[in-house]
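Hi C.,

You asked whether I'd gotten around to modeling the 445-residue construct. I have! Everything is below, sequence then structure, no commentary in between.
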Amino acid sequence: MIYDRPLTETQRRISQKNYNCFSAVNGASYMCLGETVIILFAVKLHAPNAIVAVIGAMMFLGFLLLPLGVIRTGQVGAARSQADFWVCRNVAALLVAVSALVLPLSRELAWGMLLLGSFLFYGFRAAGVVMSQPLIGDISSDFDRARLIARSTGLFYGSGLAAMVTISLILMRYDNLWVLVGVIVAGACFGVTASTFIRRIDETADIRRSAQSPLLPQLREAFHDLTLRRQIYAGFMVNLGIIMMAPIAILTMKRGYGVSDTQAVLFSVIQFAASIAATQISGRVTEKIGPRKVAIYAYSLIFPVCLFWQFAPSSIHAAWMWGLFLLPFALIGSMVVSAQNAMIHYFLMAVPKERQVASSMFISVVTGAAAGVTGMVVAGAILKFAERMFGSGLAMYRAYFACAGVLFLGGLVFVVRLVPVIDTFLREHGMEKTRAIIREVLPRK
């Protein structure tokens, strides 16, 4: 329900409970539909590497549909808008499943339906979550916001981990295309169920009014904000890292080492288990050192991942070797959730509430859609170059991660240059002299 006044403590608590329930059910849904299952599904459809790279970028390329979420929020509010698009998102997932029926008729048509379904799936997701940051800010306070973000993310990855374990057990016995179709359909059902919890969230009318306001002046103002610009550059590099690391790591295990679908899911299980642990740790660390430093440290986890693949053995032939290969996926899981949570927390601390709607859309489009397009093109180009130089074996993937490591080393400067939140607060309140003094005393969060 939408109230033309601040929410009471009871309303905030109930809304947070519903948001956590949504996260828990949505985690199970997403693991049945997300990158790992879709990538395994694409491999079953005999899709080439370039298409797999495009699928890895779809999560962010889908932000092109984000303006639909702003329009809908202006009509019905943030909570109901997200619920509506969540239903559309999961219906779109069924298009991915239907591509299996088309495969005997035409591989190209099946690949096209796979890409279209993936785009709509992530596009409706983007339209739904465009106001999620302002909504989180609306139902929480400065004192419980970090805890809410950490808890909801932990529930998401916890239920996702349970779903991945279940999927791996199923694939261990029934490893075929139609089982993956069934997993996707089950995920869509979970997703529709998750939307019912979002509809129960209360919010203030501020978000709807902001969405109804003319966006161009707000976007112009947002573009001239130094803090926001630097956050966009940093968010772009963080998202680019997620796009270019996680999907290709799974692809390396599948086509570089020839592991089965069940074994590939095992690595994803480790990734999500690491995400759960990182969620709890990063929430506490953020409260102590601030989101800026957490974002820097999380982004830096990309480099040991890239380095690992340069020295990874050429075959897996012992139990301890399997343990060794869990390392990069644990690092990727820690990097993804820690960096994303840090950027959300940074946004809510650094951007005034009255500008969060326009700023959220601006950031999402640039760091989402632009990173998606860039990741799709760059990852595809590097894979093609590496294949031309080293063939289609493991050496191709080693070359890919070496090139990616160099790229992200250059991008580290954008994350490091995030404006400390203390500086932002003092500058916006015209306290430049105080800012100079306090910066010498307090940690730069």
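If it helps when you're writing up: Confidence is low (pLDDT under 50) at residues 423-429, 431-445.

Thanks,
B.
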